[in-house]
Sequence to fold (275 residues):
Amino acid sequence: MVRVIGFLVGLGFVVVLGYSLIVGASAYLSDPPEETVEHEFHHHPKQVSFASDGPFGRFDRAQLQRGYRVYEEVCAVCHSLRYVAFRNLQALEFSEAEVDALAAQWQIPDINPETGEAEMREGIASDYFPSPYANDAAARAANNNAIPPDLSLIAKARHDGAAYVYSLLTGYEDPPAELPEANRPGPGLYYNPYFPNLNLAMMPPLTADGQVTYDDGTEATVEQMAKDVSAFLIWTAEPKLEARKSTGWAVLIFLAFATVLAFLAKRNVWRDQKH
Ligand code: HEC
Fold:
């Protein structure tokens, strides 16, 4: 009896699932979803490679230092980097003295311990990068009602992160003639086919070769600056990337070794048994 009931309940489920599958499939076929304009004009990120890619990837310290310069001189006007402290820059092979000097170039909002008044003071190595705006309302007011997102984790927060940032920075163009009126950039928006809704409230930040001064002799073309800052943002999002990759290799080698041992042990245990 229980079996029969169980069978009927199972059959009920199968009928309901089968019915909804058929209804869904026929609705999809008879009335396929329309392709959106955004989808049609959107581009996938450009192909670009970084030293940290792949299972043996390592950061290119010189590139990260250049990327930091781009962030500091260009992006920091609008974007915070709130999960990174100045002292973390030592990982880019800036010396302790250099980090102190870099930190001192920033103004940090603080409270004066003597008077209790709010004040700005010079940054020290243990400070985190400050936000350029007092709060979100001030950020919106300065940016056509869009908030420039914190960049610390952006390389993880977007699909194909670093390539996306690189494409976004080098991807501004005039809207194509066949773009419908409704999708054209309004006032304060800029057409960029790498941004999912095609119109971005960030004005092109990298516009001229040599905009940032590199002290290692690398030519600061727009491409180069975009690539360097994207590499820098891979590091801010995952400073322990190299340790993760080398741990992965150590674990794989150990597992391979343990497999051989297990196989030999099994052979040993079953040695006397007839087949
Ligand atoms: C003048 C201010 C300004 C500067 C300078 C600036 N940005 Fe932006 N950025 C914005 C604003 C505003 C947005 C939000 C755009 C939106 O939501 O439409 C944004 C968005 C972004 C995004 C996120 C896009 C997304 O998918 O949500 C990235 C990545 C970015 N900026 C990177 C950079 C980098 C890297 C630099 C330096 C080379 C930079 N920005 C310089 C204002 C700025």
Remarks:
- The chain has a mean pLDDT of 95.
